[in-house]
Design a protein that fits this description.
The protein is mostly helical. The protein has a domain at 42-135. The chain contains five helices and no strands. Helix 2 packs antiparallel against helix 3 (70-89) and helix 2 (29-63) packs across helix 4 (97-116). The N and C termini lie far apart (60 Å). The mean pLDDT is 89.
């Protein structure tokens, strides 16, 4: 039988079958525990992947009133919906968002400085929105 390192898909199906058949003594417990733990880590990574462009477009909206476009609305909506979907399935991850936003904020301002040429002095040094405001579909602040 293929192991974890030889054929992950086959290994995962076998582990699922063993679990459903209550054949716990045959499980690859070490690899199974590592894989389950990594699932939560992947969710956090994927939220970060969506959070950074969301924050970037919210900041563009705030700082470039004269250049606002429908694309910025579309991008913020898309990322908010995606993050919201993950949080519906894993609501405990919402508690990680304040620290995540704080950690991503410097990258957001650097990206905006590079792409739009906005002076750092004109950008907030910390995210000006609450987590709920960042995630509320349709909400764009002035």
């Amino acid at each position: 039988m293929a192991g974890y390192d030889e054929d992950f898909a086959l290994w995962a199906r076998r582990q699922a079958r063993l679990l459903s058949e209550h054949r716990f003594h045959e499980l690859d417990v070490t690899s199974l525990a590592e894989e389950v733990d990594s699932m939560a880590t992947r969710l956090v990574t994927e939220i970060e992947w969506h959070m950074q462009p969301l924050l970037s477009h919210l900041l563009r909206w705030k700082c470039f009133e004269g250049l606002r476009c429908d694309n910025w609305l579309s991008v913020t909506t898309e990322h908010r919906i995606w993050i919201g979907g993950v949080l519906e399935d894993a609501p405990s991850l919402k508690a990680t968002l304040p620290e995540m936003i704080e950690r991503l904020w410097l990258n957001v301002t650097l990206e905006l400085h590079k792409s739009m040429g906005l002076n750092f002095d004109l950008m907030p040094t910390k995210c000006p929105w609450t987590v709920d405001e960042v995630l509320t579909v349709g909400l764009l602040t002035k």
